[in-house]
Amino acid sequence: MATPAPLLQITHLQKRFGKFQALKDIDFSIYPGEVFGFIGPNGAGKSTTIRVLLGILKASGGSATIFGQDVWQHSVAIHQRIAYVPGDVYLWPNLSGGEIIDLFLKMNGERHTAKTDALIEEFGLDPRKKARTYSKGNRQKVALIAAFSTDADFYIFDEPTSGLDPLNEQTFQNHVLALKQQGKSVLLSSHILSEVEKMCDRIGIIREGQIVETGTLAEMRHLTRTTIDVQTVAPLTKLAELPGVHGVTAKHGENHVSLAVDADQLTPVMAYLTQQQLVSLTTTPPTLEDLFMRYYEAPNDARATDGK
Ligand SMILES: Nc1ncnc2c1ncn2[C@@H]1O[C@H](COP(=O)(O)OP(=O)(O)OP(=O)(O)O)[C@@H](O)[C@H]1O
Ligand SMILES: [Mg+2]
């Protein structure tokens, strides 16, 4: 079966600022109908990657295409089919929120519609106030309302919910899921891992200007550890010696412990636990946060080899 052509394709993308190489080697693709989560620590290069994609910055090497067109050479044509929301939304201070929404729409060749009104209502924005009076969250809402009322093929959000309260964050998530159902594609950079976990089909982790991992959350889970709380009839004396077992902590003597197990060692560890006759067992699957912390803390590519 033929895979559809990617909507976004980034190959060996590099960006230098003087001597500083902000992007060393960025590689990932986004396919039609996909929500792609872009995560990584502060300063990893997410916004720089996005600025290159938008044609704001010129790459120093490699290539990036959207809709099969080079992002630098064809930025004008590409912009007609994308909607973008930055994390730090700049608004004209003397215009009202409503005027700015209409201006954003006009710049994208769109018009204020009933959908725009519904979005203003849903996000609870007062569009009559001057932008200079808006809080960070309200400024983000202005940009989000304009983006969601735009009929684009590709939506790029760079930390769009950092200033939103939980209710508005939920509204944001609902609209992203609606876009996905319409077959639109989304690039979402976010530090809110639960949001990424909930909404993204695939995830790319960037660290120091390099993509260290891409895949579905299920694919990434094999790199992580499952947490187990177990109680047995016989004491679990040998548990700590088994390969892939980490952080054995006694909860109540040697018969009730908690531990973490590498995904590839789950079978032998479970066999040992069963041998000791299970009384109770609770497992907690690794979260995106666990996975992410490992990349945050560990130096380059320590995921497969780090010790205890
Ligand atoms: N115009 C610039 N000139 C020089 N260095 C820059 C410039 N823009 C970004 N950088 C550097 O490039 C690196 C990547 O920055 P970037 O803003 O892309 O990070 P980020 O992943 O978006 O971080 P955050 O999560 O904090 O938003 C940082 O070290 C930053 O200081
Ligand atoms: Mg950023």
Question: Gist?
Answer:
This is ATP-binding cassette domain-containing protein. The protein is α/β, with parallel strands linked by helices.
Task: Looking at this protein, list some descriptive labels.
single chain, 308 residues, alpha/beta, 6-stranded mixed beta sheet, elongated, binds adenosine-5'-triphosphate, binds magnesium ion, transport, ABC_Transporter_VariousFunc, DrrA1/2-like_C, ATP binding, nucleotide-binding
Word description of this protein:
With 308 residues, the protein is of the alpha/beta class. The chain has helices spanning 46-53, 75-79, 97-107, 114-123, 136-148, 166-181, 193-199, 217-221, 266-275, 288-297; strands spanning 8-17, 20-30, 35-39, 61-66, 69-70, 82-85, 154-158, 185-189, 202-207, 210-215, 225-232, 245-250, 256-262, 278-284. The protein has a six-stranded mixed sheet with strand order 6-7-8-3-9-10, with helices on both faces. Strands 2-1-4-5 form a four-stranded antiparallel sheet, with helices on one face. A four-stranded antiparallel sheet has the order 12-13-11-14, covered by helices on one side. The longest helix is centred in the middle third of the chain and has 16 residues, at 166-181. The chain starts with 7 loop residues before the first strand and ends in an 11-residue tail after the last helix. Mean pLDDT is 90; it is low at 301-308. The structure holds adenosine-5'-triphosphate and magnesium ion. Magnesium ion is lined by residues 46-47, 87, 158. It comes from Lactiplantibacillus dongliensis. Pfam families: ABC_tran, DrrA1-3_C. Residues 8-233 form the ABC transporter domain.
